[in-house]
Each structure stands twice: as structure tokens, then as C-alpha cells.
Specification:
This protein is of the alpha/beta class. The chain has 6 helices and 13 strands. It has one domain: Leucine-rich repeat, LRR (right-handed beta-alpha superhelix), CATH 3.80.10. Strand 9, helix 3 and strand 10 form a beta-alpha-beta unit.
Length: 263
């Protein structure tokens, strides 16, 4: 199957999903009904749209102005051959991208505030600075050069996820220089970044409430040692999927020292 079967116009439809259409290679104007014989064009009420496990899908084209006027949530998951997404999505707020390695330059609408899943360096480089400054949630992965991530432009960021990124000594200073300036950051999650570490006197963002660390041995060492005083101000710390209580750890340490005095 090279294209999807024609869809009837459903002006009241709010949620739509395409799953595991493994033979589909293209989606064109027939999806939105851009035909002279059809009175209602596009999905006028659609708010959520997802594409999952579309292994041969390469092209999504012929999306015209007004096709998705209310679309707020778009998910692209396991679409390994998809190269680009439509430009005209004026109400899009949340974009989720997972396992779409061929997806290149994106046209980001000004309404976008959440970019979830895996934003790689190619996608990041296509994002305008004014959009970056409005993002409230961001997930990045597979960065070979974290220096290209301009943290100082994430003025509004509330939730920030980093996974599987490369790091060297010069980038450590860059990360530390800007992380504490994310004054609205509340949730920071970092996974599988073995080379990232924090210096003894480094300060975490002032509004941070939740810190999650997974498979980052240098960060875990900091949490158990010199980072304890910084972590006591955070509501929840999760290390390797387990809650970590720095105050309790300090009390245990003090108790052990007292026991030694009695001996």
C-alpha cells in the first residue's frame, strides 16, 4: 500500500491516530479532503494526532492553511523514514518526536511550548531563537556536541530532559555556567550521560523541585558526596529509579561517627 485509503470528512473529530501502517509510504491532500467536490476541508476540530510505528512512511505533504486549525498535540513515534512535517499547524502546543532519525528541518509554529521525546542536534539547529525562548518543556538526546545547546536562551523552561549526550571537559564548564540561570526550571532529568559531572561548589537552579538521574555515575557520586548540601533544598531526588534522601544520609553518617566515639 503506497497511500492511505480516502477518509471521510469528520468535522467533529478531536483525536486521530495512525498505528502500524507498515506499507504506507505517503500521506497527501486526500487526508484533509482538499478536493473541489468536498465542501468541508480539513479536520476543523482535531486537537490530538499521532503516528506510531509507520516504518515506510516518507512524505507528509499538501497540508494547506486551515487543514488543522485546532491541532494542539502531534506525536511522531517510530517513523524512521519520515523527512519533514507540514509547515501550517498554527495552534500546535506540544510536539512529541521519538525515533525519527531522518526528520530534518522543522517549521515550528509560534504557539509551540513543549518539545518532547528526542530533539537531536539537527532538529535543534532548525529552531528559531524566539521559539527556544518560549519553550516550557524540552527533551534532547544524542547530542555529540552539547556546546551547541544554548541554555541561556531557555528563559521559560520548566521541565528539561537530557539523555544519551556526549560530553567532554570543555562542555562541562559550559553546562555549569548556564544551568543555574534557568530560574523557572522545576524538573530536571538526565539519563545515560556518563561524562557529565558537577563541580563541588556548583549551584542548581533556584526553583528546582525534582531531580532525576539515571546511569550517570559522576553525577551520582556528586549526589552522595559534595552535592548533599545542595540537594537538601530539592523536594525529590531520584537516583537510578529510587528515591534518594540526602538529609537521612547525613544523619546516618553522623550516627556512625557517634557510635565510633563510644568504642
Amino acid at each position: 500500500m503506497r497511500s492511505h485509503p480516502p477518509l471521510r470528512q469528520l468535522p467533529l473529530l478531536r483525536h486521530l491516530g495512525f498505528n502500524e501502517l507498515s506499507g504506507l509510504e505517503s500521506i497527501g491532500q486526500e487526508l484533509c479532503g482538499h478536493d473541489a467536490m468536498i465542501r468541508i476541508k480539513g479536520f476543523l476540530s482535531l486537537e490530538m494526532l499521532h503516528f506510531r510505528s509507520m516504518y515506510r512512511w516518507q512524505e507528509w505533504s499538501f497540508v494547506e492553511d486551515g487543514s488543522f486549525p485546532c491541532l494542539r498535540h502531534l506525536e511522531l513515534n517510530y517513523c524512521p523514514k519520515l523527512r519533514r512535517m507540514p509547515h501550517i499547524l498554527p495552534s500546535l502546543v506540544n510536539l512529541v518526536i521519538w525515533h525519527c532519525p531522518e526528520l530534518m528541518a522543522l517549521s515550528m509554529p509560534p504557539s509551540l511550548t513543549r518539545l518532547e521525546g528526542c530533539c537531536n542536534e539537527m532538529i535543534w539547529s532548525s529552531m528559531p531563537q524566539d521559539l527556544i525562548s518560549r519553550l516550557q518543556e524540552l527533551s534532547i538526546c544524542d547530542f555529540e556536541d552539547l556546546a551547541s545547546l544554548l541554555l541561556e536562551n531557555l528563559y521559560a523552561i520548566r521541565e528539561f530532559n537530557i539523555s544519551s549526550c556526549q560530553q567532554n571537559t570543555s562542555h562541562v564548564a559550559f553546562l555549569e555556567l548556564h544551568l543555574c540561570n534557568l530560574v523557572f526550571l522545576k524538573h530536571f532529568k538526565i539519563r545515560r550521560c556518563a561524562g557529565i559531572w558537577i563541580s563541588p561548589n556548583h549551584k542548581l537552579p533556584p526553583a528546582l523541585q525534582v531531580l532525576e538521574i539515571l546511569d550517570c555515575p559522576l553525577l551520582e557520586e556528586w549526589c552522595h558526596g559534595q552535592g548533599t548540601n545542595e540537594l537538601v533544598h530539592i523536594s525529590r531526588v531520584i537516583i537510578d529509579q529510587k528515591d534518594f534522601h540526602p538529609v537521612a544520609a547525613e544523619r546516618t553518617k553522623d550516627a556512625d561517627q557517634v557510635d565510633l566515639l563510644f568504642f
